[in-house]
Design goal:
Elements lengths: L10 H6 L3 E3 L2 E3 L5 E3 L2 H11 L3 E3 L8 H12 L7 E4 L19 H7 L2 H18 L3 E2 L22 H17 L5 E5 L21 H17 L4 E4 L11 E2 L2 E2 L6 H11 L5 E4 L5 H4 L4 H11 L11 H10 L5 H17 L14 H19 L1 E5 L13 E8 L2 H7 L1 H8 L4 E6 L4 H10 L2 E7 L18 H4 L8 E5 L15 E4 L5 H11 L23
Parallel strand pairs: 1-4, 4-5, 5-6, 7-8, 8-11, 13-14, 13-15, 15-16, 16-17
Antiparallel strand pairs: 2-3, 9-10, 12-17
Length: 545
């Protein structure tokens, strides 16, 4: 179709381009989550004419099944929709069972290889196009260590590296017709331990400090052509110290941050999207109506997870003068321009460009190459790695995690990698006694302590807590010389609860490609060449309210 002209659009149609059809779930005014019928979704979509579909909740679906839903919902809209989602940690395979659980950002940071990052971005984009997604809310370019956020970034300490790898990922995705998103502007603060999902967080840096640590990264990816930027909810008093009922103004609702700094001073002419508006970092500051008006006036162009009545709220605010219609025009223009960059107004454009069987083999090839360059032998005090493959007949894997899927499904990839080599594997869900460890030590040639802590797994913590700590009351008291600690997630466990492990390996992710590379390295089939991309000293543990 021909690119729409603002002069030909009604006010409500222009507002629609700022709004998003949430997938499967909607939030009522009282905050309760409800599921809408297909008929209700159709009615809502035809009324609001959403510019974006939130393509997030597709767990356990095949890509083609999800594509059918996207296509059906897109058919209700006069203007082709952007279809957005995160898929940060494991790419398209994070949601769709027939797509590839790719290697995530921190593992890619451990490779420090721009070519691999570009190819991974392009491969993930091709797989997303199997489902209908054409807008990925990634990469995270925050420099932050708290709350597990480091797992979503390439590094927590290197501005040049973050810029270089972030831009490689963006260019890879955008080369395959998926818009990249640099987030969460204005970035992370090394001294901030609060998490905007649950509490009011803030940037304590001066503008000069921010520029040296974070601002340069955003400027570099903006100059490099990123199509969109997501604004986070933490406040930034060095730029805007205004308050609402005694609470510092979140950046998402700050014109000084979004318009004056990001759009004007830094010259960003793409789409600005808010972070999720259900998060406490902003939802605890404003009333429902004020939240929408403040975010629009701040300069945001797309509202992520706004409630269904957002269109009515914006229209009323324009008519009564609280929002100038020129702000709506600017937002709509930016959204339409990004759609044009993606080729969405070209004849024959379709969101669903590929089928899974056409693209997954190449993604697997890239992911396997990345994994073999990412896995990091962080410590080997006794010089036991690699083990003599010919002498390893039995291995015990002891698993500690707050995320049961690791135990129930994902650790199977490590077990299978050993079994494929004729090695017998005993799986244990935590240790219950020293006697149990002694028995495992006597019967096995290698003891592997496998742990996983991820973002919000558990919520508010960046280590193992409660019963998941029990193993380490007994760990390493027997068989220390043949014990290996390994973390599939947050790497700080190496200097935290597993500091007693003489040999320790960081996978920087839970993709099965990383687990397979771990086994290959452990048995001397490949060298461990990954280099830690973060400061491994454990940050202070803060349990969120």
């Amino acid at each position: 179709m021909k690119k729409p002209q603002l002069s030909e659009m009604t006010l409500r149609e222009k507002i629609g381009q700022m709004l998003m059809l949430g997938q499967f779930e909607r939030f009522e005014m009282n905050g309760d989550v409800v599921r809408w019928s297909d008929e209700a979704i159709e009615q809502m979509a035809k009324k609001e004419q959403f510019g974006t579909i939130y393509g997030q909740y597709s767990v356990a679906m095949k890509s083609y099944e999800y594509a059918e839903i996207i296509n059906r919902e897109a058919s209700y809209l006069k203007i082709p929709p952007l279809v957005g989602g995160d898929s940060e940690e494991k790419g398209a395979g994070q949601s769709n069972s027939d797509l590839t659980p790719a290697v995530g950002p921190l593992a890619l940071g451990a490779t420090d290889d721009e070519d691999i990052v570009f190819e991974m971005g392009a491969a993930i984009a091709r797989e997303l196009r199997c489902t209908g997604l054409n807008w990925r809310w990634s990469p995270v370019v925050d420099i932050s260590r708290y709350g597990g956020s480091c797992m979503r970034a390439f590094t927590d300490m290197d501005v040049e590296k973050h810029s270089r790898l972030g831009l490689a990922m963006i260019k890879g995705m955008q080369s395959e017709g998926v818009a990249g998103t640099a987030k969460h502007f204005p970035g992370g603060d090394p001294s901030e331990s609060r998490d905007s999902h649950f509490s009011l967080a803030s940037m304590s840096m001066s503008k000069e400090e921010w520029w040296k640590r974070q601002g340069q990264i955003f400027q570099n990816v903006i100059d490099g052509g990123v199509y969109s930027v997501m604004v986070g909810h933490k406040s930034f008093p060095a730029i805007d110290d205004s308050t609402i009922n005694g609470k510092l103004r979140p950046c998402t609702a700050s014109k000084k941050v979004v318009t004056d700094l990001l759009k004007n001073e830094m010259g960003f002419d793409g789409v600005v999207i808010t972070d999720d508006l259900a998060m406490a970092g902003i939802a605890a500051v404003f009333s429902s109506d004020d939240l929408i008006v403040e975010c629009v006036n701040a300069g945001n162009d797309v509202l992520l997870n706004a409630k269904p009545e957002a269109g009515d709220i914006i229209e009323k605010a324009v008519k009564d003068g609280r929002i100038d219609e020129s702000r709506i025009d600017d937002a709509c223009r930016r959204v339409l321009d990004m759609k044009e960059k993606l080729g969405m107004f070209e004849e024959g454009y379709v969101n669903v460009k590929f089928k899974a069987e056409e693209v997954t083999a190449r993604t697997e090839e890239i992911a396997r190459e990345a994994a073999r360059k990412a896995v990091d032998l962080y410590r080997d005090r006794r010089n036991v790695i690699p083990f003599d493959k010919n002498k390893v007949k039995k291995v015990a894997i002891i698993v500690s995690t707050h995320y049961e899927c690791i135990w129930l499904y994902e650790i199977e990839a490590m077990k299978k990698a050993f079994e494929d080599r004729g090695i017998k594997v005993t799986m244990k869900r935590r240790l219950s006694s020293e006697a149990e460890l002694k028995e495992l030590s006597d019967e096995n040639d290698i003891l592997i302590y496998a742990a996983y802590v991820g973002m919000h797994l558990p919520k508010g913590a960046i280590t193992l807590v409660e019963k998941e700590c029990d193993t380490f009351w007994f760990a390493f008291k027997h068989g220390a010389e043949k014990s290996v600690g390994v973390t599939l997630g947050i790497p700080f466990l190496a200097e935290g609860i597993m500091s007693g492990a003489d040999a320790f390996v960081n996978l920087y992710g839970r993709s099965h490609f990383l687990m397979e590379a771990f086994v290959e390295g452990l048995l001397g089939e490949i060298p461990f060449v990954g280099k830690t991309p973060i400061n491994m000293l454990p940050p202070k543990i803060v349990l969120e309210d």
